What we know:
Helices cover 42% and strands 17% of the residues. The chain is α+β, with helices and mostly antiparallel strands.
Amino acid sequence: MSLRTVHKHLVIAALLFGIGSGLPLSPTTAAAAGPSGFSIKLQCALLPQLFEGFLRNHYAVRKLNAELKQRTVEQFTKAIDPSKSLLLETDLVRVRTLASGVFESMGNNDCNGLLEVSKILVERAKEDETYVRQFMGKDYKLDDSVELMLDPEKRGYSKTPGERQDLLKKMLHFQMSNYLLAEMKLPDAKKSLVHRYELITKRLSERKLEDLVTAYAESFASALDPHSDYMSADLLEDFRINMGLSLEGIGASLSSQDGFTVIEDLIPGGGAERSKLLQPKDKIIAVAQDSKKPVPVIDMELKEVVKMIRGKKGTKVTLTVLREGEKTETFDITIVRDKIDIKEQAAKITYEERTVGARKVKLGIIDLPSFYGSDDQGGRSAYNDVKKILLEARAEKVDGIVLDLSRNGGGLLDYAVKISGLFIRKGAVVATKSTDNEIQILADEDEEVVYSGPLVVLTSRLSASAAEILAGALRDYRRALVVGGDHTFGKGTVQVVSGLPLGLGAMKVTTGMFFLPGGVSTQHTGVASDVLLPSVFNSEDLGEKTMDYSLPPQTMKAFLSDSANSPDPTRHWKPVDPAIVRKISERSGERIAKEAKFADIRKQIEERNKNKGVVRLADLMKKANEENGKKKKDKAKRNPGQKVDELAIPVVQEGVNILVDLITNT
Length: 666
């Protein structure tokens, strides 16, 4: 593309890079972001206009100052060497200088500094490739006494070539153990490992300037806050697919962290969730297509890993998974790719009866995995399904309801507001504050109260975004007792996605912040539980506040509505009494202390905290051998790791116990 053509594009881009109305991007809009069949790679000369578009619309960061430039450079260094295994500390000075210089040169269509950074990476990759060939010689033996610190932030960059070589040696033993645990013969494993490093060198050598410019734009966006992003045409296509309720694949949301592909969430109804074996925070370290050899994916670009995992309905993919818990372990899981059925994602209810003294009570447990909705599904939505369920529960004359949001990662905000209205008469549910400090309050205007009885809401640190709005609003109005983890995820910001011209992809920009009726944002702190339960997800490395450049929480004047409760006894609900909450919490604590399943959870938490970040090859090998022995004895019992449902059972059951206490005390 000539410079003249680029300047022509600049004129068009300058007119269209602004978000304007701030409307979310629909799947149809995404597909039409550029002229049909036409797209271009992001050019260096377009960066100033792109960055201006982000700053014009961002909620908190509005100027390109020295701090934002420094953040961008830091994010860029993380992106090019996420495991901190390639670059030396001495390399960083040069890399940061080159990356920082792009801000001054990009207006002249000069991003050649990024090519110089790439040359440094290629040089280090070639050094690794040479060393691996030597290390994997005829005298190589696996050293299972090796311990590897996985967390690059704790490990840091190597200070000397010798220190970097020592780190590489440990990583090679770790990688070799994965091959051997997969029952690969040593000669074949050595060849595969050498080939892996050849591929790393090849991939880095073939990286084009346009790819580096895209990485730089992504780094700028992530320097604003964790949820702003520049989406290339490929990523925009992924976004368009994920907006739908019917996906072909394994049904898991993935991220790239420190060189690992990490499972962030399991999509209800997908193959990964149905397997009952995968958990959030599991690391995928190898991928194998049906009947083919596994391909290691550590340090592989996320988009490449996603392409390997995604596939047509009915085909199989095998994942090699690394899990850190009581003991670090690896295992293989084969998943049949499928379309995710909306029925599997939909809200559902089960019933349970309890006898308390001479009284029998009937309870409803509603599982709401997401706030879904699509015109393509004949108008089906989380709101309509929950309303139907509540009408059914009312006809069944339930004495109380548990609403399980413990694995609800969010979804459509409008439905969170409308579902809140099923439990209160009418009133404000959430407020959003925009970039220009304009406050908009979203309220339930329907005076109908579909269910007015005792209500317990289950949450965890996996409950995020719209789920936090629903739980928080019901807690602020004292309409429900919130039970579960220490607090929810803590994502209290609003994002808008806007398509860019010329098929350049899209901008996702944080444009606002959520506030609960009590005036507090869910940002960082999330929604605290009234009754706290032990959970493996009560981890300090899980939540919004752990993410780079997460925006600080804010407060505003409370906007609770007096109209939320009704004087009509048929629609009136009894507010949760703080004195009763303390009493219920004490009873729950007594039960938990005696419950073996909660003791197991506490043990897992202790072991995880003790071994956090460290992989011991001896533990890996021992655990794998134990599992192999079990497989030979009884293939039907093959289950490497605790199922997600098994983790949820004690929490749900205690939620039911707490509901019984709430019923008998009101």
